[in-house]
Design brief:
single chain, alpha+beta, about 40% helix, ArsR/SmtB family transcription factor
Length: about 230
Amino acid sequence: MATARKNLPGGQAGRDSRSSAPLPRVVPDAATPTAAGPPAELGPAALRALAHPLRIRILDLLPIRGPLTASKLGEIVGESSGSTSYHLRQLAKHGLVREVEGKGTARERWWERTPGGFSISSAGKDSPAGRQTAEAVNMEFLRLRNERVMAFTRAGQEADEETLESWMGSATFVTVNKWATREQAKAVVEAWEQFAAEHLDPLNNQEGMPGAVPFEIHFDVFPTVDPEGNPL
């Protein structure tokens, strides 16, 4: 259902895709990227509030499944509605989720991810504990992302030919290996942000449009060795 390409030495293209070390900065959902830069980084209090696997799972699900109630979230993650309701309120305190205006009742509230996205970086933290928290949260988001990639790949093995043909070309996994300076890598990231503003922003608010289904788009830029040449 998808092509996987990897840039090989000598410029030859091969059908290979590999996962590598996590990014120093992870943007779990750049919902409204702009040319001005990535979404704002989470502060220490919000990051501590997010350092819970179920809260990360909730934030990971909402952009994919759309607005959900605590009860429906509970069904999906195998928790009680009381548990998911509590975690939703904690996330809301830090502006990570919000109630959907004009939908639901006092007994059954609908929740969605707060627009604008956010980023998480282990750099610049004032304590080892802060860096460890950022790293743990990033790793969990990346683990969930990888689970979805694997689920999509498995689905392709079970799909019929008609389904495969209808989706062929609409999904791809690409890994490109180049040598670059920090400045050149930064320029690539800035070009991506401009691309996102021009081509991804227009896709906002298309839930319910005929033929539209949730898609996930990945863009990773990171070094594979440290300045001394040691593998990361």
